[in-house]
């Protein structure tokens, strides 16, 4: 084929659509055939997103009103009463599970995060209330100390260092009170070494043999958690300890590492994780793909707060089509191998899928 070079300022005036010769490239392979009609596109579609793929993370707070999360338009911190009602709505939309994240009153936060071990803390009370009202929905609770510590770290801090083994001992206590409150899935998001084994052992010993563990196995030290930290009040801005930077890079993973994610997942599976997670989602689709390919176990992606904020923020500015970007971002997780996705969009997606089904 001859390619004609046309400089930007010299368009060939004699070339018009209606004067182009009838061309035939003589192709036998034309991938566009399968795309020409909606029925055909449906027929050749490789993966599908259904409500079965959704876990809805919700933020909790004390009191009897809800407060918007400023960096996550459309998301609020719910009081328990609202959370129960929203769990009912989620169940009615066929969303399999919700994940609970508390905003802890600053007066209840301390150096050791002791409110985490209070069997009457916000998460435990919400778990009991939701279980009583909506027994059919799965409840996932987060194990990590950051909503409870004055310094905002996920573990125990000694001389400015988040110490591993003591942190694990604390996380075990937290997991036990959550399981006792009725949590179905314990989800350690702390990234301490050895916590899955310790939690599994303690759950079994305490009579919670059937409580599942979803390990945040490959969790990266990410800027995309920013809005979440505001929502649960654990951002660096709220830290009072001068020793702290709010930086979690000594326990969360380096965004440059992919092989390391496979080693982390292997360890958590050996230690007894029933499901594993990659987090954040969209910037780590390669990691998700590799994890699923390597282990073929139930694998989840967390579309985190910053990802939600980017899509929803741009949509509210009118810069992108929010619904389409939402659906496209979620089908990408499925294509990469996710069995499910934690997403703040869950109820909206479920609603949209229901409307599409007619
Ligand atoms: N261990 C806490 C935790 N659990 C889930 C998220 C982030 C979720 C989100 O950004 O949506 C975080 C934040 C963090 O590690 O700092
Ligand atoms: Mg690990």
Characterize this entry briefly.
This protein is α/β, with parallel strands linked by helices. It has helices spanning 38-44, 80-92, 122-133, 164-181, 195-205, 226-232, 259-270, 285-295, 305-316, 322-336, 346-357, and strands at residues 54-60, 67-68, 76-78, 97-102, 138-143, 156-158, 161-163, 185-188, 212-219, 275-279, 299-303, 340-343. GO terms for molecular function: porphobilinogen synthase activity; zinc ion binding.
Describe this structure in words.
This protein has 358 residues and is an alpha/beta fold. The chain has one domain: TIM Barrel. The protein is built from eleven helices and twelve strands. The strands form two sheets. It has an eight-stranded parallel barrel, surrounded by nine helices. Helix 7 packs across helix 8 (285-295) and helix 9 runs antiparallel to helix 10 (322-336). The longest helix has 18 residues, at 164-181. It is elongated. Mean pLDDT is 93; it is low at 237-245. It binds the ligand NCc1[nH]cc(CCC(=O)O)c1CC(=O)O and magnesium ion. The site of magnesium ion (MG) has 5 residues, from helix 7. The site of ligand PBG has 12 residues, from helix 6.
């Amino acid at each position: 084929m001859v390619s004609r070079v046309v400089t930007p300022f010299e368009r060939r005036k004699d070339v018009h659509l209606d004067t182009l010769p009838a061309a035939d490239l003589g192709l036998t392979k034309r991938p566009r055939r399968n795309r020409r009609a909606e029925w055909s596109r449906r027929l050749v579609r490789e993966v599908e997103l259904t409500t079965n793929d959704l876990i809805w993370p919700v933020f909790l707070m004390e009191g009897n009103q809800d407060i918007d999360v400023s960096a996550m338009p459309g998301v609020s911190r719910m009081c328990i009463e609202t959370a129960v009602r929203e769990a009912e709505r989620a169940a009615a939309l066929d969303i399999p599970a919700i994940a609970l994240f508390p905003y802890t009153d600053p007066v209840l936060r301390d150096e050791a995060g002791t409110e985490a071990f209070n069997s009457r803390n916000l998460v435990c009370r919400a778990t009991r209330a939701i279980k009583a009202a909506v027994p059919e929905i799965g409840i996932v609770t987060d194990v990590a100390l950051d909503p409870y510590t004055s310094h905002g770290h996920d573990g125990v801090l000694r001389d400015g260092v988040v110490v591993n083994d003591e942190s694990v001992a604390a996380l075990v206590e937290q997991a036990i009170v959550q399981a006792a409150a009725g949590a179905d899935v314990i989800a350690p998001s702390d990234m301490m070494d050895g916590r899955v084994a310790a939690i599994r052992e303690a759950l079994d010993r305490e009579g919670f043999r059937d409580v599942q563990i979803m390990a945040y196995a490959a969790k990266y030290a990410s800027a995309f958690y920013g809005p979440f930290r505001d929502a649960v009040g654990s951002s660096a801005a709220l830290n009072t300890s001068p020793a702290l930077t709010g930086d979690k890079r000594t326990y969360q993973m380096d965004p440059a590492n992919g092989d390391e994610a496979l080693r982390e997942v292997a360890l958590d599976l050996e230690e007894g994780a029933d499901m594993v997670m990659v987090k954040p989602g969209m910037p780590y689709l390669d990691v998700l793909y590799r994890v699923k390919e390597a282990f073929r176990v139930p694998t989840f992606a967390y579309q985190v707060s910053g990802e939600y904020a980017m899509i929803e923020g741009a949509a509210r500015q009118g810069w992108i089509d929010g619904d389409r970007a939402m659906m496209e971002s979620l089908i990408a997780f499925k294509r990469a191998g996710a069995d499910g996705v934690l997403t703040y969009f869950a109820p909206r997606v479920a609603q949209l899928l229901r409307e599409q089904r007619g």
